[in-house]
Amino acid sequence: MALKIVKGSIDRMFDKNLQDLVRGIRNHKEDEAKYISTCIDEIKQELKQDNIAVKANAVCKLTYLQMLGYDVSWAAFNIVEVMSSSKFTYKRIGYLAASQCFHESTDVIMLTTNQIRKDLSSPNQYDTGVALTGLSCFVTPDLARDLANDIMTLMSHTKPYIRKKAVLIMYKVFLKYPESLRPAFPRLKEKLEDPDPGVQSAAVNVICELARRNPKNYLSLAPLFFKLMTSSTNNWVLIKIIKLFGALTPLEPRLGKKLIEPLTNLIHSTSAMSLLYECVNTVIAGEYWESVGNLCVQKLRILIEDSDQNLKYLGLLAMSKILKTHPKSVQSHKDLILQCLDDKDESIRLRALDLLYGMVSKKNLMEIVKKLMLHVDKAEGTTYRDELLTKIIDICSQSNYQYITNFEWYISILVELTRLEGTRHGHLIASQMLDVAIRVKAIRVFAVAQMATLLDNAHLLTGNTQRNGICEVLYAAAWICGEFSEHLENPTQTLEAMLRPKVATLPGHIQAVYVQNAAKLFATVLKGEEGNTDSTAAQEASQLMIDRLPLFVQSANLEVQERASCILQLVKYIQKLQQKDVEVAEEVNALFAGELNPVAPKAQKKVPVPEGLDLDAWINEPPSESESEDEQPKAIFAKEEPKHSRPRHTEVDEKELARRREARKQEQANNPFYIKASPSSQKVYQEAPGVEHIPVVQIDLNVPLKVPGLPMSDQYVKMEEERRQKERAEKKKKEKKKRKEKRSGRGKKHDSAPESEEDITPAHMVDIVTEEMPENALPSDDDERDPTDPHKALDIDLDKPLADSEKLPVRSHRAAEAQKSPTDGETENATLPEPKKKSSKEKREKKKDKERDRKVYDIQGNLQDGSQVVVSVIFENKCSSFLKSMEFNVLDSLNSKLQRPEGSGPHDGLVVPFQLPPGVSNEARFVFTVQSIVMPQKLKGTLTFIVKNEDDSTHEKLDFKLHFTCTSYLITTPCYSDAFAKLLESGDLKSSSVRLEGVNMPFHHLLARICFHHHFSVVERIDSCASMYSRSIQGHHVCLLVKTVSTVSIDAKCDEPTLLGNVLDEIKQTFSQC
Amino acid sequence: MLNIFMLLFSRQGKLRLQKWYVPLSDKERKKISRDLVQTILARKPKMCSFLEWRDLKIVYKRYASLYFCCAVEDQDNELITLEIIHRYVELLDKYFGSVCELDIIFNFEKAYFILDEFLLGGEAQETSKKNVLKAIEQADLLQEEAEAPRSVLEEIGLT
Q: Topology in the membrane (chain B) (predicted)?
């Protein structure tokens, strides 16, 4: 035995320690993998020894190798061995290794429970410390459950060193074992007032993290945090608290008012940028904007002007958040943001670009885009240039081209963008061209002319194969020229351009469009020539088609080939008719008659499934398995394919090959139809006279290529400016005239007043065709919160008193006791079942009698879902103008969110799917997701729309508030008196009561009023006493006992006291109004 | 301020330290650190310290030849994360006495111990540098005490 120990120790002297290993790896740069594999072999030997020091050394080396990316999971058990060493030196290494290498699926973690528990209760605080640290990295649901109680005890440890670690790790425990939150919370709350600042800060950290995810459960802590905020000087803690308040204020607007003063003080006084930045962020998110908003923007300006890149970046980031809610405040800093486009840091430039997107208005769009175009020209690197390109298009096309006053200008911008070299976004430009040309009817003449020029100069776009991204534009150009060919000035020329042989080098899908649209053009040419006495032009067009189309008939692309051969046959037939002087134009044109209207992207999805149609049902029962085996011919294509794709590899030897070749030559020689390669053919060609005499002209390529006839967008900017000036001048003249007439001497102020948004009239009457939607389109699709979010499980009411059953499981030592105390496997039924109930309607009317538009809305619980509420809004147009492009938007709160279609951002508005002629009303429905229904809520929103008069159209906005009362979450549900009695007996319900003063109406009227306004049903009525019942969409029971003696008193019971309180308040309100 | 992970790597992209505060498999960790290291190394030196990467915010800073990089959640404060990185560098500096990359390579377990005293579960547990260093010193002392009386002979069992 002794000898063995001696041997082990001597071996140990020769073992590599960590330093040796690191040095070794550095010395074996060439064959690192090989060196490490020998090291791992050594480590394996070391791990087999009994000496714990050797093992710890080995484990330490393994931890290093793990970091380098080597798999060490095989040593998990050895790590546990080292962890359980009694010596701190080794224990420390063991826990480090475990925290680096273990994860939830490591099975040996099960074995560590007792060891960790022992370490947690060790008299040595550093043993406890390493155990807590390690646990924070590899805690599993099982460990959390088994150790929650031990850790909770440590939160009251005598040493602050342990307390603070225990508090922090509780957060991880809550995530893994949500049932522990309620029992542990009182103690956690206590720690907010711990004498040690470190522990206090740890508690703030944990509660803030919890509250950020589920703020409503932590509202009751607000006063405590308010006290901490005003007393603490620790920036780390302050940042956390401010973040917490940012999450709480949307739920409790009164908090906002209280916070304004301390927040303003902090913003003014702090020198810490991190704290300032947090304050600003909270102001942006919360309801403080009115009072502190401007201060924040000022501070942000200072950040952006700072030379520190980091502050600049964050300043811009915060600005972009402000932009979503208060665009005006940001717009005044346009100069600064445009400056940032010149920054040397690309990430800052991209941020600035993002901001520009939201800053454009009708007035400055051209100017901003002009600046961006300059940047496009000088941008280095295709990524940034492509980013600029997409941004330009985004900026111009946003909200249905809202800011574009001159579409000719926009088309010229798009055409200019096609000259970008090497861009990947050809398809983007193409889709914009198509969209504009289709939807803006007034622009078609111009667009068609531009596209014809593009087609004519197609060689500039396709010249370089590297630039093939841009040739997508030709797809759009060809289609536009074809579809709207009636606007073409010279269709024959364009037809010729579309049938050039070079077209055959374009990608197949573009060629197909070319061929198809050539046919449309051909039809237009025929139409134009018909009636002319001289029919040569029409015949020439047919001849052109017949000459050029065969090129496409040979195309390798199936689509091109098919279309070309169809059209070729058609043209040949037409030519025959032409020769007989038959008029064909009308019939040919009939082929392409009818206008294509744009269809909304989601239209297909919104078509409601007709009643009685089951899309999942089989139309024909699928054949049974055995049958399909016999029915071979079914799979004709599938069977043939492998034959083609897998050429047979038959073994053919060289001799055989030579023999076959010889035979083939023989056969060819004897075949009179086989054209033989003549060795002299080239020579013959060279000897032909006159070839050398053809003059070759050198083309000077240094002259920049300019596409003839392409417009310069800059011209438009100038023109637009002049136009606006003229308009302004005219207006002024008119005003002056008026003034002269009136002879009123006051006020020059109008002259200097800046041009407002509404003053700018678009250059042409623009009618943007709206996209078509199917009738009875359904409201948007569900968009549920991520069900895998671990924080969802922590949405637990913390104010409810602890029930006896809610205790952390305590591991007992003897099996006999285990039955008495709650055992590990037992879990409380903490989750509330959410029964799905039918909803009834409640009508809350709120009139918004503004002169233009009136809205009435009605909130209604969703039939299927306990967290969905449908708001039907009736829009009534009370003015005499036409209203269109209505967009409905609501500023979401944390609790209630407007459901937006997939893919749209959280601040995008929803398009109202109809337009309103004067005096007409229509209804739209919007779905909201509501998390908590216990509190009433007000959501602010805006409706933007375009008012169209005969000569101009203006963009207008209407602000409104949606009031979600608690009553609107109640659903009239009948209840039988025995069930009602049982419910009252169950003792789960909290009671509350209210007295209605000064109500003197008959009792049945009173009941009817409660039933109608608050969705209750009468369970039983005896004389002047009645019991009533209702149920919330999330299944809360609400019971009322209404009595009239001299005054009306209502005793109420509900399993959710907050909800009950609010419902009673609302009932009181109803009766105070009458 | 909840860190999701922290990485230290050299200019050549060699990982020097990694600490993960969320459970991920080795494969995912490797993929994330490889991608992220490449992304950061590709950035130009004058660029700002923040980037949005997948759904995370990355905050990084280069000190001499080492990059320190933290990932935090979307709502977290970038500047305080930068402060955390700086704090950690200061702690290393104090502990090793003007720290260099080699210190961290050869004493990588010490670097972890310091980090563990400073952050726990991704959350800053101690904002006082003095307290962190004191805790480390005392733990080191405990280690030395345990090691000191153990001469080789003792271990062999001859005394």
A: Peripheral membrane protein
